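Dear colleagues,

I hope this message finds you well. In preparation for our joint manuscript, I am sending the 4-diphosphocytidyl-2-C-methyl-D-erythritol kinase (Bacteroides nordii CL02T12C05) sequence together with its predicted structure, so that both groups work from identical material. I would be grateful if you could confirm receipt.
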Amino acid sequence: MITFPNAKINLGLNITAKRPDGYHNLETVFYPVPIEDALEIHVLNNSTDKKFALHQAGMEITGNAEDNLVVKAYLLLDKEFNLPPVDIHLYKHIPSGAGLGGGSSDAAFMLKLLNERFELKLTDEKLEEYAATLGADCAFFIKNTPTYAEGIGNIFSPLSLSLKGYQILLVKPDIFVSTREAFSLVRPHEPEYSLKEIITHPVSEWKEQMVNDFEASVFPQYPVIGEIKEELYKNGAMYAAMSGSGSSVFGLFAPDITIPDINFGERSFVFKGKL
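The corresponding structure tokens are as follows:
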């Protein structure tokens, strides 16, 4: 069986408080975008005691197979349901370290794939519980619909928001932004207006109202990321922002505009499509 885990963007992100446990409370809006990995599983006919085999292609993924979130998702359900051994094929197209949730999406889609393949009869709510143990934003990808998130990004409220027809141009420069460092440099504050309110306004008003708090600390360190945002606005974006803690930046364009070809450098990942 095969599935296609998709990416997400953050429509705004406010860091609202530092928690006693060292984490931060925040509010953000997750929105799915059609940049996809490919994930396939087969039952492994194996004479050894091996529970899984992981085959990776596409963009390079560093680290041991056991640390990959798709493997962790499999082992999580295997512990509960004693699943058959599986052959896992993962093709990476969503760039890592981009604020796009690629690894989290892979994990959540793995849970859904295993649930379907082995008829585990797990509800979305139960799958969300499992996903939440793998990462704060993993659970978003279970229902994979526009979502308002608060807490540490793990408390969800569904939204009726639709950007259907809008065009997106997303750029991920060849820059790695440390999420830990990005959090260490932000100044928590209560926003004047909640993102829940702002997203009810027309997209044309978001530029003046919606922010990603990480930009204030990331842009001075990596000016090229801020320059990409400026370039998107210069070329007609209605709203542009960094996604999550970076380093990808996206621009939303009206459905009827022709997005010009922009040179962001040979080593940049660029995606252009419709939402």
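For the figure legend, we might mention the following. The CA atoms of residues 68 and 241 lie 28 Å apart. The domain at 2-158 is CATH 3.30.230.10 (Ribosomal Protein S5; domain 2).

With kind regards,
E.M.
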